[in-house]
Structures are given as structure tokens and as C-alpha cells.
Amino acid sequence: MAQRTSPTERQKRLGAELHKMRVAAGVSAEATASLLGVDRSKISNFEKGLRPISPDRLRSWACHCSCPDEAYVEALAEMAQPGPGWWDRYRGTLPGGFLDIAEMEAHARCLRTAHTVHIPGLLQTIDHARVVFGAVVPPLPERELEVRLVHRMERQRILVQENPPQYHCIVHEAALRMQFGGRAVARAQLEHLLTMSELSHVTLHVLPVTSGVFPGAGQTLVYAEAVVPQLDTVQIDSTHGPEFLYGEAQLSKYRAHLDWMARLALDPGSSRDFIRDVAKQL
Predict the structure, then answer these.
(1) Can you tell me the mean pLDDT for 250-273?
(2) d(CA 172, CA 218)
(3) Which of these, 5, 12, 56, 218, is most buried using a 10 Å CB contact count?
(4) Please, where in the chain does CATH 1.10.260.40 lie?
(5) The CATH number of domain 9-80 is 3.40.30.10
(6) What is the gyration radius of the CA atoms in the chain, in angstroms?
């Protein structure tokens, strides 16, 4: 199989898990190469996500490393399965981070998110999203802005597809009161939030300004739960693009952040009432 030049975040993650497994078992790269019948350089490329590994070869790797967690190994084997997703149509057109977010969402069984200033991308109306994408420096060319809008709307299908992931969202009051696009756009956005919050797999909590301080204030945080907890991922937004984290300490830290915010937030029914009150004020 050909070597990659730009592995996706999912491919990098698979490689990182292979490296972690090998190092934890105290198995050398040379011994692993000998077992798999490949040269030493390919082991490094597997572990960097630069070269695809077949599911069968991955299972041999795990057996050689005496990994006892069958569910974890099978989850990794699933990651090694080739096959493009819908987001690959945008490869070369949008920054890779946009595609990595869509891929992460597609493979998550549960998404936990927290947003302080922005409405979550999966819950934005197209008019709201247009304003958000238009507020960048330097301004996006009109064609690229339209492509980003189409991609974002396509991402949102995950919440209305068959067998959607559970979606738990915390939105700060500040985000609800941002009049991006003016009163009419803001009101329509709040009404859309109310509609989406009625879906059985969507749980929306509002965090009022009166709740006070909480960790990570100002960050946009997405915690994607995988089929096994070892493969959970945290995604954080920045002005330079998304950042993906999956160290055990990082996962624990951001689970604690979300749990703290959830304790401060209103319950779903009170949250819907709060959103209605904000909408009436527009």
C-alpha cells in the first residue's frame, strides 16, 4: 500500500495507538518488523499514520504486543478499514481540519460539546453560519465561503440520520444573546435551537451568566466518545484551526470540565424556557 503524504487526524490517531501499544509491551520496532515481515522503516510509517495497515496485520501487531483488550483491538481494526467518507469530496477544497472534524463526528457514538460565544456548528442555521464565516480576516472569497456553508450543512445531517449519535450540548447565555446577523437572524437561530432540542437524542443545557466561573471559559470544546473509551477524542477550536487531543490526562481533564459545566447549567426544560425568553426580547 502506498505511503501517504498528509494523513488525516484519524489515521494519525491509529498510528499513535499502535506506537503506544508497542511501547507499553516493551517490544522493539525491529522485532515488530520481523514478525510482520516488513522492513524497519515501515513500522515508523505505520506509527506516524503515513502508511495504511491492514486489519489482519493490525491484529497480528496487537497479538505480538500481548494486548488483552479485544474490544479495543477490534475498534482499531475498524479504524484501519479503508473507505472514503462524504467529507472526502471536499479534500483539496477545504482545509483538512474541516474534514477531520466531520470524520470525528461520523465515528462518534456520543458527542459532548460546550460553547461560550458561538452556537454549535451542528445546530447553526445557514444564515447564522454565513455571518460566522463572513467574520474572518482576511475575508474569504465568496466561492470558498459558499463551500464552507455547504459542508457545514452536510455535517448537520448526522443529527437527523438513522441511528444518530447522542448529542449533549452546553450553550452559554452569552452565545444566545449574540445578535450575529441582526435580530431576525438571531431570533430564527434561537427558534432552530428549540426545535433541535426536542429531538430525543439531543440534550441542550443553557449555562446562565449568573452561574459564575467555570473551567475553560471561552473555549469551544467537543468531546467525542468512541466505541471504546481509549479512543475518545477532544477537539478544541482556535483561530488557526481545530486541535485534536487524546492523551489520557487530557481526556480526563476535559471530561471534568464538561461535568463541572453540566452541574452549573439549567436542566433541558428550563433551558428551553430560557431560550424562549431570550428570543422574546429580540
Answers:
(1) 96
(2) 10
(3) 12
(4) 9-80
(5) no
(6) 21
Confidence of residue 241 (pLDDT cuts 50, 70, 90): confident
Cβ neighbours around 246 below 10 Å, total: 19
Distance CA 153, CA 88 (A): 15
- The pTM of the full predicted model, rounded to 2 decimals, is 0.93
**Do 109 and 219 contact (CB within 8 A), yes or no?**
no
* Structure confidence by residue, pLDDT tens digits, 143-155: 999 999 999 999 9
**Intervals of CATH 3.30.870 along the chain:** 86-280
Residue 113's φ and ψ, nearest 5 degrees, are -130, 155
pLDDT tens by residue, 6-38: 899 999 999 999 999 999 999 999 999 999 999
Looking at domain 86-280, its CATH class is alpha beta
**What is the pLDDT, as a whole number, of residue 3?**
65
Q: In terms of residues, how long is the chain?
A: 282
Q: For residues 161-173, give the mean pLDDT.
A: 97
* Residue 238 in this model has a pLDDT that exceeds 90: no
Q: Which is nearest to 22 in space by CA: 2, 3, 1, 40? A: 40
User: Is 51:12 a contact under the CB 8 Å cutoff?
Assistant: no
Query: How buried is 212 (Cβ within 10 angstroms: 0-12 exposed, 13-18 middle, 19+ buried)?
Result: exposed
